[in-house]
Amino acid sequence: MGLRQLGGTDGGWLIEPAPLDTTRFGLDVARLTVTRGPADPQSLIEALHQHPSQVLIGRYPAELTWVAAALQASGRDVLPVGGLIYWESPAGAVERVNSGPAGVDVVEAHEAANEPAGSAVAHLVDALVLDTFAGYGTHYRYNPLFDPAAIVAGYAEWARGCLRAPDCGVLVLRVDGEPVGLATLGPDGPDVDILLAGVRPSHQGRGLYASLLLTAREWAAARESQRVVISTQTHNVRVQRAWAREGWRPVDTFETVHLVQPGLLDRTTLTDRTDL
Ligand SMILES: CC(C)(COP(=O)(O)OP(=O)(O)OC[C@H]1O[C@@H](n2cnc3c(N)ncnc32)[C@H](O)[C@@H]1OP(=O)(O)O)[C@@H](O)C(=O)NCCC(=O)NCCS
Question: What is the mean pLDDT of each run of 10 residues along the chain (276 residues)?
């Protein structure tokens, strides 16, 4: 779900099934989105209390002070799994005053609709995502019910799917022709949303990521989008420093919580997973 939906102002809440998560993690998962506007805490509490899903992944604008208490009153275990922050930048062709580090370029990867599954480009995207995001502190990783290997495999599947989707783009960052990073992009109304973006650990800390940001802005401008948005967990200060350096601006914040059926998060599960 992109910023435009999350940042809605109809004052309602919505619970939707999450079939991909349900299959991937072997748990009945649904998603709750609370938007800005007139609040009805009692109806939310009742709906959460009655909902059959084992885990509800909830998102709400961070300034909605009533939501935390309503979630707690639902009788579910409330797991705070990190804030989400969005940053924005205007779409636009960028004058590259400094051409950036030598040998660096960004190319768009495609997979033809008639290509068999498991093409070379799909393998490449897989390898880049698995390497880059293996340790990424996504909200799923805070929940001991979710298998870390399945989380990153899910990101890889998501990025591979983007190769064939007509409204999605996959940018590959290369150094001297060697792929070292990627970004996946998709439209969200007049915005382009950067869905996943990163650089392999072996090539981090060299200022390479900026090339992906610049190319994403050009990609958006070529599709007549007005703005590019990107999000991360608030603890990811490192990537926000890169966004700030490139002139991006923070635009919105949300809380993410996992609302778990009582009894699932027992003491054993928790002590087993202090490595995360
Ligand atoms: C976050 C990430 C994209 C940054 O890419 P990068 O090419 O290493 O970025 P840069 O070299 O431009 O460094 C960005 C900032 O991190 C800092 N940094 C570099 N190495 C660091 C390290 N080991 N630890 C902490 N910060 C570090 C840099 O100093 C820079 O900050 P500054 O501009 O204030 O000096 C990359 O580390 C990554 O892919 N991480 C995993 C996936 C991820 O978090 N993606 C973003 C969320 S979708």
Answer: 77 92 97 92 94 97 96 96 97 70 91 79 96 93 94 94 90 97 91 97 96 96 94 97 97 98 80 56
Cβ–ligand 1 distance for 136 under 6 Å, the answer yes
Q: What is the dihedral of CA 143, 148, 150, 152, to 10 degrees?
A: 110
> What range defines the domain where residue 158 resides?
88-249
54 with 80, same domain: the answer is: yes
Q: Is the CB of 248 under 6 A from ligand 1?
A: no
Ligand 1 centroid from CA 49, angstroms: 41
Atom 37, ligand 1: residue with shortest CA distance: 204
Is the domain of 177 the same as that of 122? yes
